[in-house]
Amino acid sequence: MTDTVFLTGASGFVGSAVARALVQRGLHPVALVRPTSARANLAGFAGTIVEGDVRDADAVRRAIKGARYVFHVAADYRLWAPDPEEIVRNNRESTRVVMEAALAEGVERIVYTSSVATLLPIQERPATEADAATPEQAVGAYKRSKVVAERLVEQMVAERGLPAVIVNPSTPIGPRDVRPTPTGRIIVEAANGRMPAFVDSGLNLVHVDDVAEGHLQALDRGAIGQRYILGGQDESLAGMLRAIAALVGRRPPVVELPRGPLVPLAWINERIARITGKEPFLTLDSLRMSKYRMYYSSARAEAELGYRARPYREALADAIAWFRETGAIR
């Protein structure tokens, strides 16, 4: 008999990659999907789709019944919202609902998808799992929401025996980024020649399929209550843009901008977004984040889970190929 896995976020970028990995493992995912969610990433889905909202305790409880494992991947991943606290409420409440249902149904093991957003960027070295941030230290509503949700999971592990392992993906890139994510938008804009300049920043880039495989390795070998960074390679934003330019045959941008003059532009973008309802490309929070080189070490996941990540340029190539297929990159 095939083991059933309750999965949230299956229509999203990371969640759909996890869904494919679960099916390849021979598991049967039961995916809770909102009626309004885009279904492109669910084409050919080999599991069961149940419609419902991850914040709806009754819907989650019905869908989770009979599951041996739980993968809570869904998140409100926005760097801007007209009401920033909505992001915090959504991620905290959805996590609480799923964890409560998992406890009530007696699931054997949970993999909770957090983020490196819950860790402090350390400028002298790559950050590790030990560099936990407080909600007050997190920059922006999204990062604060993930810190609050992760601390909730940790508290339930310590106080109620929640059988959860926490994974912290860095910056996933690759195919099927349908929304796209903020990093996916950078890839599209740069590949189309619409990023003539950059700021001095850095990030850790990883193939989304390697992140998905790391989720299954956490299921197999992760320690309950432990967190594991699922990262790839550290790269400056300038280096990433050079790699994109090389893959699409463009000249890379060479102008490095100071952040100060961009603040009014970000402010204007946010005011326009309030009128249009469309998430702005440049926000005040993204400027604040860009002050840091967000570099991370996956050494613990490599040592304890057997986690490995391919070179990030392969992930970039896969992302660009997929964006070309969809027409996002000309």
Overview of the structural elements:
This protein is an alpha/beta fold and 330 residues long. Helix content is 43%, strand content 15%. The chain is built from 11 helices and 12 strands. It has helices at residues 13-25, 57-64, 84-105, 140-160, 182-191, 208-221, 237-248, 262-276, 284-289, 299-305, 312-326; strands spanning 4-8, 28-33, 48-51, 69-72, 109-113, 164-169, 171-173, 197-198, 202-207, 227-230, 233-236, 255-256. Strands 3-2-1-4-5-6-10 form a 7-stranded parallel sheet, with helices on both faces. A 3-stranded mixed sheet has the order 7-9-11. Helix 2 packs parallel to helix 3, helix 3 (84-105) runs parallel beside helix 4 and helix 7 packs across helix 11. The longest helix has 22 residues, at 84-105. The protein is globular, with a radius of gyration of 19 Å.
Task: Please tell me the CATH architecture of the domain at 4-177 and 204-236 and 294-311 by its name.
Answer: 3-Layer(aba) Sandwich
Give the helix proportion (percent range).
40-55%
Largest beta-sheet details: 7 strands, parallel
The count of strands amounts to 12
| CATH fold node name of the domain at 4-177 and 204-236 and 294-311 | Rossmann fold
Topology of this structure?
Elements: E1 4-8, H1 13-25, E2 28-33, E3 48-51, H2 57-64, E4 69-72, H3 84-105, E5 109-113, H4 140-160, E6 164-169, E7 171-173, H5 182-191, E8 197-198, E9 202-207, H6 208-221, E10 227-230, E11 233-236, H7 237-248, E12 255-256, H8 262-276, H9 284-289, H10 299-305, H11 312-326
Parallel strand pairs: 1-2, 1-4, 2-3, 4-5, 5-6, 6-10, 7-9, 8-12
Antiparallel strand pairs: 9-11
